[in-house]
Backbone:
C-alpha cells in the first residue's frame, strides 16, 4: 500500500471511529448491550471489515467496548463523561508512537522499582519465562509472538508491584500497549535491533532479581529511552516534533444499527 492509500485509509478509520463513538455514547445504548455483527455494521457503513476492525480496536482502547466470548461485541459503558480515552496511535506516524512510549515511561519505571521491592519467586519465574519466549520469537523472526511475550513480561512486572491499581491500569492499556509493542518490534526487526531490546529486558529482570529498586528504575528508563530512539532513527527523525495530535472532526450523526 502506498503512502497516499495509507493516509486515505487512516482518515476513513478516524471517521468511522468517531461515528461509532457517537452512536455508542449518544443515548441509544446501555452498558451490556450487544452490537450487531461486524459484517452487518460494515455493510451499513459501506466500509471494509479491515477499516471497521481498526475502528473497533480503537474503541476497545477507549474502554467503550469489549469482545465477549459467546456474545460478540459488548458495550462496557455508554456514558460519555465516564470514558477515559486513549486514542490508538497511527502505526505509520512515528511521533504518535513515541507519544505512547512517553506515556509508558511514567508507568513502567515506577512499576519496575516497586517490583524490585516486592517480587517473589513466582514473579521472577514469570518474567524469566517471558524473556525465554521473547528470545525464541526473536531467533525465529516471529514478531507477533515477540509482542505477546513482551506484553507478558511487562504484565508480570505490574503484578509484582503488589498494587492492584497497576494491574488494572495495565489491563485497561492492553490494546494500545500491544499495538505500540508491535510497531516498535516491527521496526526493530527491520533494522536488526531486536537483540538490543532483548538485552535491555534482561537487565530489567536482573535488577528486579537483586531487589535494587533504583537499578530497576534506571534499567526501565534506559529501555524506554532507547525504544523511542529506535523509533526515531527508523525514519531519520532526530527528535520529537510538537504537532496537533487531535482526531478528525466527528462525522455527522446518524443511526447505523
Residues:
Amino acid at each position: 500500500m502506498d503512502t497516499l492509500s495509507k493516509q486515505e485509509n487512516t482518515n476513513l478509520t478516524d471517521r468511522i471511529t468517531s461515528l461509532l463513538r457517537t452512536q455508542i455514547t449518544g443515548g441509544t445504548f446501555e452498558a451490556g448491550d450487544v452490537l450487531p455483527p461486524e459484517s452487518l455494521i460494515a455493510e451499513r457503513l459501506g466500509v471494509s471489515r479491515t477499516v471497521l476492525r481498526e475502528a473497533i480496536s480503537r474503541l476497545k482502547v477507549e474502554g467503550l467496548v469489549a469482545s465477549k466470548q459467546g456474545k460478540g461485541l459488548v458495550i462496557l459503558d455508554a456514558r460519555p463523561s465516564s470514558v477515559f480515552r486513549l486514542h490508538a496511535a497511527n502505526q505509520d506516524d512515528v511521533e504518535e508512537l513515541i507519544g505512547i512510549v512517553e506515556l509508558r515511561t511514567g508507568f513502567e519505571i515506577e512499576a519496575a522499582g516497586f517490583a524490585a521491592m516486592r517480587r517473589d519467586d513466582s514473579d521472577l519465574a514469570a518474567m524469566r519465562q517471558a524473556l525465554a519466549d521473547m528470545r525464541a520469537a526473536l531467533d525465529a523472526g516471529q514478531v507477533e509472538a515477540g509482542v505477546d511475550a513482551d506484553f507478558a513480561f511487562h504484565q508480570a512486572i505490574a503484578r509484582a508491584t503488589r498494587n492492584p491499581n497497576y494491574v488494572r491500569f495495565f489491563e485497561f492499556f492492553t490494546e494500545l500497549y500491544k499495538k505500540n509493542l508491535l510497531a516498535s518490534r516491527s521496526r526493530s526487526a527491520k533494522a536488526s535491533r531486536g537483540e538490543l531490546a532483548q538485552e535491555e529486558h534482561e537487565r530489567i529482570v536482573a535488577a528486579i532479581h537483586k531487589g535494587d529498586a533504583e537499578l530497576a528504575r534506571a534499567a526501565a528508563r534506559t529501555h524506554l529511552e532507547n525504544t523511542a530512539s529506535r523509533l526515531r532513527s527508523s525514519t531519520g527523525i532526530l527528535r520529537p516534533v510538537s504537532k496537533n495530535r487531535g482526531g478528525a472532526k466527528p462525522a455527522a450523526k446518524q443511526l447505523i444499527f
